[in-house]
Design brief:
single chain, 13 helices, two-stranded antiparallel ribbon, 4 strands, mainly alpha
């Protein structure tokens, strides 16, 4: 899905939105234990069968619970489809999110058995921002986890003591921006070190780590980080644009990670995101922290106003 291409009439579809609701766990909530399992799955074919008319919880199915990344992307898809989010069980989603945070401030992806790192801190931050409810996140612990994950070279890793990476640096900075904690978590000197680390990742396009080849997707991961840090104007936009376009397949379309390589959906999306950050023509402007179009964010803001007026 190309989140920043803008709105299309065909996307204003209740039927399409219903497909994403089918991946939601528990439309009706009875106990706190049920709430711990709430969220979106990757597919409606996994776990309990979707029944929009049910009036009580179905019997518990082992390992049938939401996934924090699928909850984030599910919510984004609903917003992009023009849904009003009125069918969401927001309290249940928030309680489910709370069950995924660990004592060190990080988040795991699923309720039982999962990795825990910066990716899911970011997903939790986006979910909380979209739901306009931060009660599912201990923000102090999450911000401290991010702070402790800054490496000796200025970049930020997936967790404390881990290697700096363009993706995890983005997740960390974007999370703090959404929390409104960026300038209270890092000092001006520490923020300058992050900026410097990101700027040093540009060769022509951007690399994700030192001594690694450039890759189309980091035009977004690193570029959006610099955008959030008010340092995007320091990059060589001509060189970055040239690299992104060099990975485009002139026959089948799409973007690849490298020139003369097979295009794929992920790099096609992030290639367009990279172009959007540079205000390319015919590409919608994007919100660098939420990773979707500003048009979609405006729709979300209207939803927030309706919630707050109740």
């Amino acid at each position: 899905m190309i989140l920043n291409l803008g709105e299309k009439n065909m996307l204003n579809s209740s039927k399409d939105a219903s497909m994403f609701y089918q991946s939601n766990i528990h439309q009706w909530i009875q106990t706190d234990d049920d709430c711990r399992r709430c969220g979106f799955r990757g597919s409606s074919t996994i776990g309990a069968k979707f029944n929009p008319t049910q009036v009580s919880c179905e019997p518990y199915i082992p390992y049938d619970f939401g996934h924090i990344a699928q909850t984030y992307t599910g919510l984004l898809c609903l917003i992009l489809l023009g849904d009003d989010l009125s069918r969401l069980q927001r309290v249940a989603l928030t309680r489910g999110l709370r069950a995924h945070q660990l004592e060190d401030g990080s988040f795991k992806a699923t309720l039982h058995g999962s990795e825990n790192d910066m990716r899911f801190v970011y997903c939790a931050s986006c979910i909380s921002y979209i739901l306009d409810d931060w009660t599912g996140v201990d923000v102090d612990k999450a911000a401290d986890y991010i702070y402790r994950s800054q490496s000796y070279d200025g970049g930020i890793g997936q967790g404390p003591g881990l290697e700096s990476h363009g993706g995890s640096t983005y997740c960390a900075v974007a999370s703090l921006v959404l929390m409104d904690r960026l300038y209270t978590t890092f000092s001006s000197v520490e923020l300058d070190r992050i900026r410097q680390w990101c700027i040093m990742r540009q060769q022509n396009g951007f690399q994700g780590r030192p001594m690694k080849p450039v890759d189309t997707c980091y035009s977004f991961w690193v570029g959006a980080t610099l955008k959030l840090l008010d340092a995007f104007d320091l990059i060589d936009k001509v060189a970055n644009r040239s690299y992104i376009l060099s990975t485009q397949d002139s026959i089948v379309g799409g973007f690849a990670k490298w020139p003369d390589y097979h295009p794929d959906a992920l790099h096609a999306y992030f290639g367009i995101c990279g172009l959007s950050l540079m205000n390319a023509e015919e590409v919608k402007e994007m919100h660098p922290a939420l990773n979707m179009s500003t048009h979609a964010v405006q729709h979300l803001e209207k939803i927030h106003l309706s919630w707050r007026s109740v």
